[in-house]
């Protein structure tokens, strides 16, 4: 979702006015709650004019006074609490919620979020909508994704379990009414921010079915979500906003009505950056035909959307029946929210704003913040700290005394930082571990000085003698990017009017994050200051990136090159490392809190380039460790870290996401042992960025990534997390060693707490198919359960695994299959073998027309849209690329191969080879030039000596597209 949905000051008085119910409308059938919902919807749709129907397809649906219908808005952000509407309970980031592996807890958090959404709705029914855009279920296949913190896991099963819990919590438990209406984001295969509206996610069919779709299906199938949002990207050449999967696939997962919504300006991209359609009418019509019900466009201005829809109707691109179908889906959600029912019928309608930030919500936020923390290391039982021998604690690091909100965070009503939380347990010495510097304009000898006013002012270099107001604190966020905080008023430097540097930001924030800078050392020993905010801001001031000092002494961004910038001397007032060391010396324990800044180290519209810990923060860790042998590192970040910071002599490492208002108390609860850590990783922590593929590689089986396919040794594996106690698994048993495709197997394992304190463990059951026609994951999560055990206590955990869960997408027949094969069931280090009696996948029969995308292997090719409406084809972009169809039964003899092709480029050929891309040549198909990439024609070529069971390779000698192929036998 883009910045376009960030709240703006509204002066639309009409939206704030409750529509009185006309007397004649009180008895209309659509207001009778005892009638079936479908009957009520039909009645209401039948009373709407054509213009009124069209108006309901925009995010801001206007009031219809003659029927007593008020305004309605889709889309309130609610990833980890209600966002953007004012102070609310802020829970840990979504990634942190998944770290708990606790669906019951996540459901409680969803329930609070839905309840507070109702509270905000009571304040402003027209603007504070009850359609919540959460949760995000895009799989976290690559930790460099800028929105990593918004998702749950790299695993679809875990993502499905957590999203189902959160969605059920939001909706509430009433059989008829919704507390609020959750919408899953973002369909589909969306994990890249750079050029995200034009990036094309290439996803082969099996990965699409078994991985990406598998994350969305559970919540929809469990009726734990009321809709889906389309994503910004293209998938296999087609923008998601016009993918018919929205209608044909997503809606097939449930019998309940779903409201499919567009992302902000997503439909406009069809004629904008994507250039997929020539006119807005064509684009909007295609989106409606594909299943889109609600357009999120142009903020409150619905006119461009409704005008385009009316134009599409006039041109015959869609029918009024198409519009009514979308309207029914929209209205169904509104009926379920109780909007049209008499007072007293809907129990959620009585919720008032008093619920927001309620005391019990604060307690839940503290519990969640503690439970999502993951203990990565604990040598020699460094943790938990004892109050008896830990009287003085040093709390140091860039994140020691601050809490950061992310783009989709609510506004914290209060902030308990690590320093504040630990100060409730022990005497604290604190240091942020950052350098305080002064900048001296070398041209004049004057020092840069900041205003002490609360609102800040433009920085100037007019003082010949430095003062306290000359101090700038340097926060290192990696890759040379820093933020500068003025000692004068504690505010962070940002860009202000006239491109001036102003000390006015509480924290880095905003869509363009204008608080980012680089201090660049020059060969002559001087420094220049470069603005390093989001690249999009270049349009605001041309190519200017560097800071100059004007004749009036004011600092502005005004030079294109370092040579044209002002040169500064950098004087260190005090060293951050030395300050941290001074705080750590003599303390009973040192807690180093380092990590990411959610607005800088990757976020929406900005992928991170590295997962390494910033060098400046690493330097503080190393120095403090030398100064205090009892050093605990607390990593606070939105994503996994890689690198060599996990050195052999670090006694303890704890990871937390940005965990909201109660972070400090939760951290103290864990460090002092009031809470025994039980969080588990939901992503692989790789040792190096070099372990990661191209971020555009969505085929995880081909690239060998996520825990399912990774063959290397991770820094920390998926599912990892320590406890202050220890657990032993014994006696993994199965109730049967052979199961048929319609059956199920029960696995039992004894779990014993072998330590001296109570604790919770997450028992994880994985499977591995040991023999298959298709490449199988190294292992795959099938079930999990949290278990709480006292010291010495043993419990038996039982899992039921339907054989159907072991199915996968068979590209040879385009269906799910439970294959006859041996499997291992794995819990910890224990393994039990079972045999599954399903079916054997027969040899491929290419005599049946086969979609080219259903290949078994490939090299270099990409997937493209067959037409703008439907279909996926294979495209070669260079000579030597190929696709393979393995174990093909060519029979006694195959005479010819027919291929449906499109080729807007020069004539070329496709070679038919057996056994490999350089194997025996048995035929050559001539591919002519066609009118364009959507002009398809069938061509064929004879095959020579093609018989028996063979691996058939189609090798391209130039650019071409193949939709399908058919072999004709003798």
From TrEMBL:
<dbReference type="GO" id="GO:0031222">
    <property type="term" value="P:arabinan catabolic process"/>
</dbReference>
<dbReference type="InterPro" id="IPR026891">
    <property type="entry name" value="Fn3-like"/>
</dbReference>
<dbReference type="InterPro" id="IPR017853">
    <property type="entry name" value="GH"/>
</dbReference>
<dbReference type="Pfam" id="PF14310">
    <property type="entry name" value="Fn3-like"/>
</dbReference>
<dbReference type="Pfam" id="PF03422">
    <property type="entry name" value="CBM_6"/>
</dbReference>
<dbReference type="InterPro" id="IPR006584">
    <property type="entry name" value="Cellulose-bd_IV"/>
</dbReference>
<feature type="signal peptide">
    <location>
        <begin position="1"/>
        <end position="25"/>
    </location>
</feature>
<dbReference type="InterPro" id="IPR008979">
    <property type="entry name" value="Galactose-bd-like_sf"/>
</dbReference>
<dbReference type="InterPro" id="IPR005084">
    <property type="entry name" value="CBM6"/>
</dbReference>
<keyword id="KW-0326">Glycosidase</keyword>
<dbReference type="InterPro" id="IPR036962">
    <property type="entry name" value="Glyco_hydro_3_N_sf"/>
</dbReference>
<comment type="function">
    <text>Catalyzes the hydrolysis of a non-reducing terminal alpha-L-arabinopyranosidic linkage in ginsenoside Rb2 (alpha-L-arabinopyranosyl-(1-&gt;6)-alpha-D-glucopyranosyl) to release alpha-D-glucopyranosyl (Rd). It is not able to hydrolyze alpha-L-arabinofuranosyl-(1-&gt;6)-alpha-D-glucopyranosyl (Rc).</text>
</comment>
<dbReference type="InterPro" id="IPR036881">
    <property type="entry name" value="Glyco_hydro_3_C_sf"/>
</dbReference>
<keyword id="KW-0378">Hydrolase</keyword>
<feature type="domain" description="CBM6">
    <location>
        <begin position="848"/>
        <end position="968"/>
    </location>
</feature>
<comment type="similarity">
    <text>Belongs to the glycosyl hydrolase 3 family.</text>
</comment>
<dbReference type="InterPro" id="IPR044993">
    <property type="entry name" value="BXL"/>
</dbReference>
<dbReference type="GO" id="GO:0008422">
    <property type="term" value="F:beta-glucosidase activity"/>
</dbReference>
<dbReference type="InterPro" id="IPR002772">
    <property type="entry name" value="Glyco_hydro_3_C"/>
</dbReference>
<dbReference type="GO" id="GO:0045493">
    <property type="term" value="P:xylan catabolic process"/>
</dbReference>
<dbReference type="Pfam" id="PF01915">
    <property type="entry name" value="Glyco_hydro_3_C"/>
</dbReference>
<dbReference type="Pfam" id="PF00933">
    <property type="entry name" value="Glyco_hydro_3"/>
</dbReference>
<keyword id="KW-0732">Signal</keyword>
<dbReference type="GO" id="GO:0046556">
    <property type="term" value="F:alpha-L-arabinofuranosidase activity"/>
</dbReference>
<dbReference type="GO" id="GO:0030246">
    <property type="term" value="F:carbohydrate binding"/>
</dbReference>
<protein>
    <recommendedName>
        <fullName>Exo-alpha-(1-&gt;6)-L-arabinopyranosidase</fullName>
    </recommendedName>
</protein>
<dbReference type="InterPro" id="IPR013783">
    <property type="entry name" value="Ig-like_fold"/>
</dbReference>
<dbReference type="InterPro" id="IPR001764">
    <property type="entry name" value="Glyco_hydro_3_N"/>
</dbReference>
<dbReference type="GO" id="GO:0009044">
    <property type="term" value="F:xylan 1,4-beta-xylosidase activity"/>
</dbReference>
């Amino acid at each position: 979702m883009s910045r376009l949905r960030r709240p703006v000051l509204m002066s639309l008085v009409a939206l704030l006015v409750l529509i009185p119910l006309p007397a004649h409308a009180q008895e209309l059938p659509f207001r009778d709650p005892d009638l079936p919902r479908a009957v009520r919807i039909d009645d209401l749709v039948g009373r709407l004019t054509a213009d009124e129907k069209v108006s309901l397809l925009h995010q801001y649906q206007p009031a219809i006074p003659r029927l007593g219908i008020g305004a309605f808005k889709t889309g309130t952000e609610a990833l980890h609490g209600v966002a953007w509407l004012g102070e609310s309970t802020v829970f840990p980031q979504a990634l942190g919620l998944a770290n708990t592996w606790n669906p019951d807890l996540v459901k409680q958090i969803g329930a609070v979020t839905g309840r507070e959404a109702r509270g905000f709705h009571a304040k402003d029914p027209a603007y504070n909508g009850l359609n919540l855009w959460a949760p995000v279920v895009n799989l976290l296949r690559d930790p460099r994704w800028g929105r990593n913190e918004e998702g749950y896991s790299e695993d679809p099963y875990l993502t499905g379990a957590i999203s189902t819990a959160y969605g059920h919590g939001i909706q509430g438990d009433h059989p008829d009414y919704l507390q609020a209406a959750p919408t899953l984001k973002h369909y589909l295969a969306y994990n890249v921010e750079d050029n995200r509206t034009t990036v094309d996610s290439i996803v082969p069919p099996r990965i699409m079915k078994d991985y990406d779709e598998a994350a969305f299906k559970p919540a929809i199938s469990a009726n734990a979500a009321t809709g889906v949002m389309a994503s910004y990207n293209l998938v296999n050449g087609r923008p998601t906003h016009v993918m018919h999967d929205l209608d044909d696939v997503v809606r097939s997962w449930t019998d309940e009505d779903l409201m499919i919504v567009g992302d902000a300006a997503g439909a406009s991209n069809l004629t904008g950056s994507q250039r997929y359609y020539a006119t807005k009418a064509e684009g909007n019509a295609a989106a409606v035909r594909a299943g889109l019900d609600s357009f999120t466009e142009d903020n409150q201005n619905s006119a461009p959307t409704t005008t385009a829809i009316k134009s599409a109707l006039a041109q015959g691109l869609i029918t009024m029946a198409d519009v009514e179908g979308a309207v029914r889906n929209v209205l169904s959600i509104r009926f379920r929210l109780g909007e049209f029912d008499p007072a007293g019928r809907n129990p959620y309608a009585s919720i008032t704003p008093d619920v927001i930030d309620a005391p019990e919500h604060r307690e839940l936020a503290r519990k969640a913040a503690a439970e999502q923390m993951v203990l990565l290391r604990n040598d020699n039982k460094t943790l938990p700290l004892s109050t008896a021998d830990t009287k003085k604690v040093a709390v140091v690091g860039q994140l020691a005394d601050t809490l950061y909100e992310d783009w989709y965070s609510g506004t914290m009503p209060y902030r308990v930082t690590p320093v504040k939380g630990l100060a409730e347990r022990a005497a604290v010495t604190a240091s942020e571990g950052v350098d305080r510097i002064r900048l001296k304009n070398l041209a004049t000898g004057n020092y840069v000085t900041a205003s002490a006013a609360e609102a800040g002012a433009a920085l100037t270099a007019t003082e010949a003698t430095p003062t306290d107001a000359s101090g700038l604190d340097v926060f290192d966020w990696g890759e040379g990017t820093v933020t500068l905080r003025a000692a004068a008023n504690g505010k962070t430097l940002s860009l202000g009017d006239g491109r001036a540097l102003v000390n006015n930001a509480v924290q880095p924030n905003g869509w363009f994050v204008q608080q980012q800078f680089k201090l660049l050392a020059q060969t002559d020993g001087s420094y220049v200051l470069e603005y390093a905010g989001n690249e999009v801001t270049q349009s605001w001031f041309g190519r200017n990136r560097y800071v100059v000092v004007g004749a009036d002494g004011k600092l502005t961004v005004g030079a294109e090159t370092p040579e044209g910038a002002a040169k500064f001397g950098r004087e260190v007032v005090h060293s951050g490392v030395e300050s941290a060391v001074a705080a750590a010396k003599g303390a009973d324990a040192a807690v180093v809190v380092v990590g990411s800044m959610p607005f800088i180290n990757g976020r929406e519209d900005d992928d991170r380039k590295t997962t390494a810990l910033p060098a400046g923060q690493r330097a503080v860790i190393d120095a403090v460790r030398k100064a205090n042998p009892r050093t605990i590192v607390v990593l606070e970040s939105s994503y996994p870290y890689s690198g060599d910071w996990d050195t052999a002599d670090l006694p303890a490492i704890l990871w937390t996401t940005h965990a909201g208002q109660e972070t400090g108390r939760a951290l103290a609860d864990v460090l002092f042992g009031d809470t025994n850590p039980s969080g588990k990783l939901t992503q692989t922590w790789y040792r190096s960025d070099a372990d990661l593929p191209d971020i555009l590689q969505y085929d995880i089986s081909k690239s060998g990534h996520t825990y399912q396919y990774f063959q290397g040794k991770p820094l920390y594996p998926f599912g990892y997390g320590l406890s202050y106690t220890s657990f032993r698994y014994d006696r993994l048993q199965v109730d049967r060693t052979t199961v048929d495709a319609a059956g199920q197997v029960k696995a039992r394992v004894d779990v014993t707490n072998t330590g001296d304190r109570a604790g919770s463990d997450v028992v994880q059951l994985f499977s591995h198919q040991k023999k298959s026609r298709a490449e199988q994951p190294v292992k795959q999560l099938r079930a999990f359960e949290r278990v709480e055990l006292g010291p010495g206590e043993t419990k038996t955990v039982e899992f039921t695994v339907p054989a159907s869960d072991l199915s996968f997408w068979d590209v040879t027949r385009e269906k799910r299959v439970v294959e006859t094969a041996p499997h291992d069931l794995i819990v910890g280090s224990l393994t039990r073998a079972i045999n599954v009696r399903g079916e054997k996948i027969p040899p491929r029969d290419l005599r049946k027309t086969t979609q080219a995308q259903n290949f078994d292997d490939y090299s270099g090719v990409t997937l493209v849209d067959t037409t703008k409406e439907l279909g996926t084809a294979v495209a070669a972009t260079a000579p030597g690329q190929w696709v393979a169809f393995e174990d093909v039964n060519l029979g006694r003899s195959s005479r010819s191969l027919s291929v449906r092709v499109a080729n807007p480029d020069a004539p070329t050929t496709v070679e038919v080879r057996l056994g490999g891309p350089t194997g025996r040549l048995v035929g050559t198909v001539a591919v002519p030039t066609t009118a364009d990439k959507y002009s398809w024609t069938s061509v064929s070529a004879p095959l020579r000596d093609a018989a028996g069971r063979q691996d058939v390779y189609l090798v391209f000698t130039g650019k071409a597209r193949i939709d399908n192929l058919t072999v004709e036998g003798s």
